[in-house]
Amino acid sequence: MIILGIETSCDETSVALVRDGRDVLVNHVASQVKLHERFGGVVPELASRAHLQLLAPMIDEVLATGGITLRELDAIAVTQGPGLIGALLVGVETAKSLAFCTARQLIPVHHIAAHLYAPFLRGDGQKTKNIVVYGNADRVESTEAKQSLCDEFGSEAPLRYPFVGLVVSGGHTSLILVHNPHHFELLGETVDDAAGEAFDKVAKLLDLGYPGGPVVDKWARRGDRRRFDLPRPMLHSGSFEFSFSGLKTAVAKIVHDLGRDAFAGDEQLVADLCASFQEAVVEVLLRKSAAALEAFGVKELAIVGGVACNSRLRTAVHDYLPGVRVVFPPPILCTDNAAMIAGLAWHLRDTAPARWLELEARADLPLVL
Ligand code: KG4
Ligand code: ZN
Predict the structure, then answer these.
(1) Which of 18, 139, 148, 320 is the least crowded, having the fewest Cβ atoms under 10 Å away?
(2) Nearest-CA residue for atom 13 of ligand 1
(3) In what order do the strands lie in the sheet containing 173-180?
(4) Ligand 1 binding residues, C-beta < 6 A
(5) Could you tell which of 37, 303, 307 is best to mutate to test the pocket of ligand 1, judged by most ligand atoms within 8 Å of the CB?
(6) Ramachandran quadrant class, 287 (left: phi over 0; alpha: psi -120 to 50; beta: rest)
(7) What's the CA-to-centroid distance between 105 and ligand 1, angstroms?
(8) Cis omega before residue 82 (within 30°)?
(9) Which strands sit side by side in the sheet containing 12-19, from one edge to the other?
(10) Would you call 152 helix, strand, or coil by DSSP?
(11) Residue 118: pLDDT band with limits 50, 70, 90
């Protein structure tokens, strides 16, 4: 069964073809980061317009790349929410039109549930493409990113249910007990900023650019993570909640106390502060995950979402979670992508609403009812 997936919840337009909930045949992701860069964050209006311009040609290209015709599709899957409402609307209405014209089933998917499904995907990565979108509000253009292909993924032993999922992105930081593709138990989430948001804000404080996660990660590689003694917020709270806004304020205080000029002329200082900040985030994320695994007697952890690309987070699991099996999807399946939507949809095909023409995008779609 081949499902075409569509993802437009934020600033990535993505279309994918996945067979039987597992094999990624094609996955194209067009990142709008360059469009939003100069505003220091995602501008919802710009995102919706770019999705509108990009989506239809991308569907054509993905079908052509996969050598699949519309008639050969078994179903269409789309992110229903949560996300930016205008951005979601573009995906949902396009998917409805496509399902109507092809007389195929439409399967709505929850964005976070889909992130938690990314570790189950398999593929050789050959038809996985990153596209960089640039331009302005009236006209967007795109180029293929240099490193568009990724290596074979999903070759190790599959993750087993139930597992603990740590979802870390620009909008979410949550610990979730995943019983099966339909059943999620929210253990805790951030009470203020998301982890990715904290990375973005710290990068802004240090004038490192946007989005902050990848740049802070890069600077931190040359830094001393013990130089600044930063707080580990809510580490001993006894709950599975997180808080990152105080950590960002602590970084702001250091920048203020030492003075901006000190940072402008001292690359090592910037690297050390990035490394110390990153370590504080990583330690809290991993120690709380360890506590959740222990509390629920679960053996495996999946870390998903954009922040799961972080290089220190990926290596620190050996320091903070020795002996625990931790699964990270490849980077292109950590950030927003349609393969995770089409993959999870295969499990939802029997429970998807029959009256799908009435389907509506929902900015606040809950994961756990
Ligand atoms: O999952 P995602 O693509 O979009 C959301 O649904 O939010 O995540 C984007 C977030 C951004 O905040 C970005 O700074 C962060 O993921 N991110 C990283 C890294 N790569 C992306 N954070 C830390 N280290 C990275 N290498
Ligand atoms: Zn996401």
Answers:
(1) 139
(2) 213
(3) 183-189, 173-180, 163-168, 300-304, 325-327
(4) 10, 169-171, 196, 199-200, 211-214, 217, 305-307, 309-310, 335-336
(5) 307
(6) alpha
(7) 32
(8) yes
(9) 105-110, 75-81, 2-7, 12-19, 23-31, 128-135, 140-144
(10) coil
(11) very high
Give 355's contacts (C-beta < 8 A, 6+ positions apart): none
Test site for ligand 1: of 12, 117, 168, 169, most ligand atoms within 8 A of the Cβ: 169
The pTM of the full predicted model, rounded to 2 decimals, is 0.95
With b meaning 16 or more CB within 10 Å and e meaning fewer, what string describes 43-76?
bbebbbbbbbbbbeebbeebbebbebeeeebebb
- Residue 160, C-beta contacts closer than 8 angstroms, at least 6 positions apart: 300
Note the pLDDT of residue 138.
Answer: 64
pLDDT digit string, tens, across residues 283-295? 999 999 999 999 9
Higher pLDDT, 47 or 356: 47
Q: What one-character-per-residue DSSP string does 306-326 give?
A: GGGG-HHHHHHHHHHSTT-EE
